[in-house]
Design goal:
145 residues; 53% helix; elongated; two-stranded antiparallel sheet; 2 strands; 6 helices; Arc Repressor Mutant, subunit A; mainly alpha
């Protein structure tokens, strides 16, 4: 079973942008800092640009920048951009339709997972990039130009 690291990578991008304090930052610089392949980072940045979290610039002076200050970006915002709002999911394989146990287990687990997903979503809505920075002991966020 694999776990997605896209949310933590997206948070790393936003924190890095805030910490360096530059108007535009090259994706390759963030990728090196995060220890992530640049093509993977470009995929995540593309989703964040589409979601309005980042702005992208092309050309020799290109790069990315945040569109909002860190206290205005929640982890839920990032998860929404990434399409990662279901943290618990059933197996992609259906149980035997003639099995009472398989059907009952799937229905019950789906209900419980639904509650878990809602609780996590509510927590993500109240957790901002600024809060992560504070918890990590990073400098006080400043407005991104």
């Amino acid at each position: 079973m694999s776990r997605s690291t896209r949310l933590s990578t997206a948070a790393h991008i936003l924190i890095y942008l805030e910490q360096v304090g530059q108007a535009r930052v090259r994706i390759d610089d963030i990728a090196e800092n995060a220890g992530v392949h640049p093509s993977r980072l470009r995929q995540i940045c593309s989703l964040l640009v589409q979601g309005g979290i980042l702005k992208s610039y092309k050309g020799a002076r290109g790069g990315i920048r945040a569109t909002r200050p860190p206290e205005k970006v929640s982890l839920y915002d990032l998860s929404s951009c990434l399409g990662d709002l279901h943290f618990f999911a059933l197996s992609p394989h259906d149980p035997n339709p003639h099995s009472f146990i398989g059907t009952a287990v799937n229905q019950t687990v789906q209900e419980v997972y639904g509650r878990f997903n809602e609780q996590i979503a509510e927590s993500l809505k109240t957790t901002t990039i600024a809060e992560l920075m504070e918890l990590a002991g990073l400098r006080t966020p400043v407005e991104v130009p």
